[in-house]
Amino acid sequence: MLPKDFELFSVCLHENPVAASKIRTLNLSRNNIGGEGSKLLANALEHNTSLKTLDISSCKIGVSGILALKKALANNKGIEELNLYRNIIDVDGARCMKYVLEHNSTLKFIDLGHNRLRKTGLKEIVSGITANKDSKVTTLGLRSNFINDDGISNLFENLVFKKSSIK
């Protein structure tokens, strides 16, 4: 997508003067959105309530892109499924996702696979989920990362065992 196309697309999702957006699923995977495109997307997502599924996998958003999307995703009241697979967000991006997960109460599915996450990044994500008493996250994709045994232990201790003992 060209920058002007993406700008127009952003307007259609959020500030459309004709009618409110009714798009429920948006697949932008494998587009070179990057950090700049993420800023435009963030503007559209912050107030959009129709979108339920957002796939921005393999879009090269990087840390700058997830930083641009952080507030919008935290405040979004519609998105239930978010695919961030293969975006090179690493530990700094995981810190942004911690903020998102602490504040968002609609996300159910998040794919963070192939993002160079390690133990520290996973701890941030788990911390975000556990800090939000209204969290609806039930599915977390983490394949093809660099998570060691300590990271997996933290995940199970804080999400699986604690959640199941609450019931």
Outline of the structure:
By secondary structure, this protein is an alpha/beta fold. Helix content is 51%, strand content 9%. It contains six helices and five strands; from the N terminus they run H-E-H-E-H-E-H-E-H-E-H.
Task: Summarize the SSE layout with pairings.
Blueprint: H1 3-14, E1 25-27, H2 34-47, E2 53-55, H3 62-75, E3 81-83, H4 90-103, E4 109-111, H5 119-131, E5 139-141, H6 149-166
Parallel strand pairs: 1-2, 2-3, 3-4, 4-5
Commentary on this structure:
- There is one protein chain.
- This protein is α/β, with parallel strands linked by helices and 167 residues long.
- The protein has one domain (3-162): Leucine-rich repeat, LRR (right-handed beta-alpha superhelix) (Alpha-Beta Horseshoe), CATH 3.80.10.
- It is built from 6 helices and 5 strands; from the N terminus they run αβαβαβαβαβα.
- Helix 5 links the parallel strand 4 and strand 5 (139-141).
- The radius of gyration is 16 Å and the shape is globular.
- 37% of the residues are buried.
